[in-house]
Specification:
- By secondary structure, the chain is mainly α.
- It has helices spanning about 1-20, 25-35, 40-65, 70-90, 95-115, 135-150, 155-165, 170-195, 200-225, 230-255.
- It is built from 10 helices and no strands.
- α1 (about 1-20) crosses α3 and α7 (about 155-165) packs across α8 (about 170-195).
- The longest helix has 26 residues, at about 40-65.
Length: about 260
């Protein structure tokens, strides 16, 4: 039953990553803590970062085939994010696990509100990274990297709105492009936590196995919803609010 539970959680995480390019980590951490029963939040964070990084690569393959990835933007955003993630992870491991989960949930609420405010923005189909917006893209990459490393997440739910804000690209392109950065940031964060002994490899492998199936299903669903950016954005925000509310409740109860 435990193996089946971890595989099912992996499918859900992979589906969310494939569908909205984010949400994998915001689901992975609470699923590991509150459903699977991981006692140490830092182990949940480190293991989820590893699993999300691998699952993001799986989703990236499908999005790349569909032509939704803005590779130039990804090449600028991801390296800046990796540097920030390594810095953030060093600070995150020094913070109490329950307090870290509570701060994580509050950040999710802020991002969800910002996403809903811009849900009617369809973006510009030809948007790309250029000399004018490159500094903003680099700063956004470094900033989301610090937060991703600090909270031990792939950061897709931060990266997607950041890419849209910096370049005005449509959400489907932001989803596809974000997976490059999610994989890079997740791997960087996982490496940092692994060196501190905070990665459960067996559980991570089961989450990855389920995530491969989920990523395939989520990417197909994203293509069907691509004509309705507002619907995809609203769904994204609803996922964030739901998980954040539960995490705040559980974290406050544990403090």
């Amino acid at each position: 039953m435990q193996i089946a539970l971890e595989l099912a959680c992996g499918v859900l995480i992979g589906f969310t990553l494939g569908l909205i390019g984010g949400g994998g980590s915001i689901l992975a951490v609470p699923l590991m803590v509150y459903v699977v029963g991981v006692k140490n939040p830092h182990v949940a964070i480190g293991t989820s970062a590893m699993a999300v990084a691998v699952n993001a690569l799986t989703g990236l393959v499908s999005h790349a085939r569909a032509g939704t990835v803005k590779w130039k933007c990804a090449a600028i955003f991801a390296p800046c994010g990796v540097v920030g993630a390594l810095i953030g992870a060093a600070f995150g491991k020094a913070v109490n696990g329950q307090k870290l989960l509570l701060c994580f949930a509050l950040l999710m609420v802020v991002v969800g509100v910002l996403m809903l405010r811009g849900r009617r923005n369809k973006g510009e189909a030809g948007a790309a990274c250029n000399r004018q917006n490159m500094p903003r893209v680099m700063m956004a990459g470094a900033g989301t990297g610090v937060l991703s490393g600090f909270f031990g997440i792939g950061g897709g739910f931060l990266i997607v709105p950041a890419l849209i804000a910096c370049t005005r690209m449509p959400i489907l392109n932001a989803v596809g492009t974000s997976l490059v950065a999610v994989a890079a940031l997740g791997a960087s964060t996982a490496l940092s936590y692994m060196l501190s002994g905070y990665v459960d490899w067996v559980m991570g492998a089961l989450f990855v196995a389920g995530g491969i199936v989920g990523s395939f299903l989520g990417t197909r669903a994203a293509k069907r919803l691509s004509g309705s950016g507002a619907a995809l954005t609203t769904f994204f925000a609803c996922v964030i609010f739901t998980v954040a509310a539960y995490m705040i409740w559980k974290s406050l109860a544990a403090l």
